[in-house]
Amino acid sequence: MAGVVKYVFVFFVGYFFTFLIAPEDSGLLAWLGSVDSGYIFTGLSAVVSICIASYTHYKAKEREAESRVFIEKSKVYGEFFDLIFDLIKGVKDKERKLSEKELVDKMIDCKKKMYMWSNARVLKCIKELSDAGGTGKDVLSIADRLMSELRLDLGHKGTFSFKKYISNPE
């Protein structure tokens, strides 16, 4: 939509300058001299009003779409954070530990939703985490980066390292 507005604007500017540089007897200046200034002002006001209204409508639709995506992202990312912290609790408290089947089911469900709503940086971290497999510092580093990317995708400024909390939650 923004491209269309840009092209319409360029067309009108070009059209305006074509008449402006035309010979005196047929150019825009000759025509403007013969037309009442009230009509010119009214026409110009109408064109400007239509352009402003169109741009405002476009931006409102864009914000509405971003808002819907944000709501879905926040739900999915919240589920992922809950899953990670449930895993951490399970390490400390064996009674709260998730079974392997529950863990796999929750991970697949979260991953499916994240593929639907996440940006490219988050998807890259998810792929790296899947490829790393197992345990170790590499997985911890990738998980930390993933959680920071999730926060950035939700609009938080800067990053926050979860490594310290994950490695020693007390």
Structural notes for this entry:
By secondary structure, this protein is an all-alpha fold. The chain folds into 2 domains: 2-62, no CATH class; 67-167, no CATH class. It contains 7 helices and no strands. It has helices at 2-20, 28-34, 37-92, 100-117, 120-132, 137-153, 163-167. Helix 3 runs antiparallel to helix 4 and helix 5 runs antiparallel to helix 6. The protein is rod-shaped. The chain starts with a helix and ends with a helix. The mean pLDDT is 76.
Secondary-structure blueprint:
Blueprint (H helix, E strand, L loop, with lengths): L1 H19 L7 H7 L2 H56 L7 H18 L2 H13 L4 H17 L9 H5 L3
Biggest beta-sheet profile = none
The portion of residues forming beta strands comes to under 5%
Q: What class, by secondary structure content?
A: mainly alpha
Average of per-residue pLDDT values: 76
The total count of strands amounts to 0
Order of helices and strands: HHHHHHH
- Using only CA atoms, what is the Rg? 28 Å
Distance between the ends: 51 Å
Q: Give unreliable regions as ranges.
A: none
Helix content: over 70%
Q: Work out the helix count.
A: 7
**Large-scale geometry:** rod-shaped
Q: How many structural domains?
A: 2
